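The methods section describes the discrete structure representation at length, but only in general terms. An entry of this sort, consisting of the sequence and the corresponding backbone structure tokens, reads as follows:
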Amino acid sequence: MEKRLLDYLQKILNARVYDVAIESRLDPATKLSQRLGNQIWLKREDTQPVHSFKLRGAYNKMVRLSPDELARGVVCASAGNHAQGVALSARRLGCQAVIVMPVTTPTLKSDAVRSLGGQVILHGDSYSDAYAHALELEKKHGYIFVHPFDDPDVIAGQGTVGMEILRQHQHPLHAVFVAIGGGGLISGVAAYIKAVRPEIKVIGVQMTDSRAMLNSVTAGELISLPDVGLFSDGTAVKKVGQETYRLTRELVDDFVTVDTDAVCAAIKDAFEDTRSILEPAGAMGIAGLKQYIAQHNLRGESLVAITCGANMNFDRLRFVAERAEAGEEREALLAVTIPEERGSFRRLCETIGPRNVTEFNYRISHERTAHVLVGISINNRGEVPEIRRSLATQGFSALDLVDDELAKEHLRYMVGGRSQLNANEQLYRFEFPERPGALMRFLSGMHPDWNISLFHYRNQGADYGRILVGIQVPPADLATFRTFIDSLDYRYVDETQNPVYHLFLC
């Protein structure tokens, strides 16, 4: 066995985590197993005292500090779960803990840190911003920095999750699925599994909009992302650690990327099997497991997903519930064009037949044609082409909108907004942090000659607002306008040429 791997095995076997952590259960996911044709097990790290695995690594690091180091106090940066682990460990060890968290951190997590005695400082929009500020505080005040992932003692503490899995499941095991943010959990789990039972696959799971580890492994060097998605705040890391990158590159067998809809569906899956509500990062392992089964057509295998966190803001559940059906591919969303004549709507319903219609949105807008937004319950995505063919036989054209973010986030709630007064309209979809002043920053920077002709905002309980804006900009001002929106540093998509916009709003 390679010496470095042996070193980590020894570190994990000697890790001190059970002063604060429990040996979490390995629960069978009965309903999910039946549906997927494999034996699915959930490693329930969401049941830890701080509802996350993070206290393992934090305590294993801090318990090894000298009395003089503990007296100086500790500082860390975290999106929430590591912060709670550090705060709990500090209370247990009797030292001061300063926690820097992004402004976008869910209130549930920041309040939990305060309740554990941690001093919370909100700074920046991402973990990386908070990390830079924490390093400044370390230098200024002489605190001991407790890294959330790129530290051998932290990695070893997280590796005890892998140790428990193999102790709890001593039968053949095909793969373990692990969410990746900075890489501490997967590094520790992979180090233990590959040292003890190397035949078991370790599969990393990343969000499609936060794949710093996968990009780095693919490139053969550390890659820093310009920005990251905010839905899974627990894995929103722009740059992974040097040590976690090295271990992941050497030990992890494969990677899966999942999107927001797939994670929402996985949260629903976990609820149906356990009656627990996972946070997005906590459900990523399940989402990756489901996708891996579909890609490799697995049957009859034993698979483990680590449910690594359950610090979910209640308000976010509205968004999760709305998107879970799309993630499970249980709903088709179609823009159907029919003749504007008597009997057409009835023929459309007859063509759909006995299928459950989840949504109809329609408004008269043209003398000859009508555009109807239709939601239909389905069993799988493969049914959509069949539905479209059935509609085509009746002379109805149908546009599949299930992957269209504009349609899913906004248009299904505001169909019928055509106007004869929207000359020179530019349509943009923005995401910006849910915090005071974000909207005013946008409005105050606009040129007085630019008129807002459409505005749609819906608070969905996430850490960022989703806003659809129509702005009338004279053609001569387009270059200036684009410079303006670039200067905002908000994520945006130009939807002006989106066919859904032209069907329903333009």
Q: What stands out?
A: The chain has three domains: 1-327, 329-403, 414-504. The first helix runs from residue 3 to 13.
